[in-house]
Design a protein that fits this description.
single chain, alpha+beta, 5 helices, globular, metal-binding, Germin_Mn-BS
Amino acid sequence: MKLVYLVIAILALTSSVASAYDPSPLQDFCVALNDTKLGGMYKHFLYHMVFVNGKLCKDPKLVKAEDFFKHVDAGNTTNPLGAQVTPVFVDQLPGLNTLGISLARVDFAPKGLNSPHTHPRGTEILIVLEGTLYVGFVTSNQDKNRLFTKVLNKGDVFVFPIGLIHFQLNVGYGNAVAIAALSSQNPGTITIANALFKANPPISPQVLTKAFQVDKSVIDLLEKQFNW
């Protein structure tokens, strides 16, 4: 009897793990349908549906090569961080729907930073196309917040485990370019500084001053810095 319970527990665990990630496709492709192009009662009906995961499929007979294609230009790095991430997730490339992958191009000016962030729904693997990057990730509290870092050059690859805070800094003297592949069609991005200091509505200063052990004037200054 104990063996039966053990088997049931293992099956429950494996099924829950499988459902925690993007669903596997049951057809050749499921190009995401852009419901903004729909009209009438059908559009009204869609807006009142609850979508648990993924997007509706376009009629396969109407699918074309352009649904699987996107050109990605270099990002504009003239911002305070000196870096620009150009995502190619399912919202930008409908053909990714149900395929469980996506990517992003990251452009860096000299000393540019892709600031600490997480992808709650995807592991990231990064390859450097040009330049030199200092990259790293921090483990969870359970693992005592260990920092793993590496300096990457052209052709080098580094993996950031799902959900962990990570970053990339251009430590070279010229521009840098990297491509990040992710294990989800919509991995999501939470930029730590933005989440804390650009929350809408703002997080109570009482929370932030206590968390960072600083005066309210410091929190006020940080919030102003992120108004750009």
